Amino acid sequence: MKSIEIKGSLRTETGKKATHSLRKNNGVPCVLYGIQKDENGNPVATHFTVTTDGLRNLVYTPHIYVVDLNIDGKVVNAIMKDIQFHPVTDAILHVDFLQIDEANPIVMEVPVQMEGLAEGVKAGGKLALQIRKLKVKALYNVIPERLIVDVTSLGLGKTIKVGELNYEGLQLLNAKEAVVCAVKLTRAARGAQAAAGK
């Protein structure tokens, strides 16, 4: 996985008024959930801010990154855990980060990439990717930048489901019956099939 550096500043005030003022000045409130736990066993949370521009390359990209999070000079490795957008303007409202623990698996979504020319496409069908990202659980250093799905032998009207995929060191968390990609019958392919059946 590629890495990207994001610089942030610790927040001293976290109320509604402070948050509103922060967003007005191009800032995004963020929370980093660390490896350390509090007395109740919950991850210790660090509240900080990042500029909207500072998040652009992490958010608006098809790639996934390990984030070198620099908060007032202290750097930790993290992944983006959750993001909230404004329902109307699509502005980034809030981002949660999770500190990476090299000894424990993390959960993150990895983009799917289809490879090969499907048999069904040669027969006139249309290849469709139904799930763009799969949720995986693994140690962060074995998570690939993308999950390759070989569609070469995929025939007309056939699908590849999550349960049929297997990647070393990765546990796929999506439902096993969920369809990742399919070759759909086009009108032309249906006509050809009907003609061949006569």
Question: Which descriptors apply to this entry?
Answer:
4-stranded mixed beta sheet, 198 residues, single chain, elongated, alpha+beta, 6-stranded mixed β-barrel
Provide a compact summary of the structure.
This protein is of the alpha+beta class.
Question: Can you put this structure into words, describing what you see?
Answer:
The chain is an alpha+beta fold and 198 residues long. It contains 4 helices and 13 strands. The strands form 3 sheets. Strands 1-3-2-6-5-4 form a 6-stranded mixed barrel. It has a 4-stranded mixed beta sheet with strand order 10-7-9-12, with no helix packed on it. Strands 8-13-11 form a 3-stranded antiparallel beta sheet, with no helix packed on it. The N and C termini lie far apart (52 Å). The mean pLDDT is 90.
Alpha-carbon distance between the two ends: 52 Å
Number of continuous helical runs: 4
- N-to-C SSE series? EHEEHEEEEHEEEEEEH
In the predicted model, the low-confidence regions spanning at least 5 consecutive residues are none
Radius of gyration from CA coordinates: 22 Å
**Overall mean pLDDT score?**
90
Number of strands: 13
Please give the largest β-sheet: 6 strands, mixed, barrel
Shape summary: elongated
Helix content: 10-25%
List the strand order in the largest sheet. Answer: 1-3-2-6-5-4
- The percentage of residues in β strands lies in over 45%
State the secondary-structure class. alpha+beta
SSE layout and pairings?
Blueprint: E1 2-10, H1 16-24, E2 27-37, E3 43-51, H2 52-59, E4 65-71, E5 74-85, E6 92-99, E7 106-115, H3 119-122, E8 126-129, E9 133-138, E10 147-150, E11 159-161, E12 171-172, E13 179-184, H4 187-197
Parallel strand pairs: 1-4, 2-6, 7-10
Antiparallel strand pairs: 1-3, 2-3, 4-5, 5-6, 7-9, 8-13, 9-12, 11-13
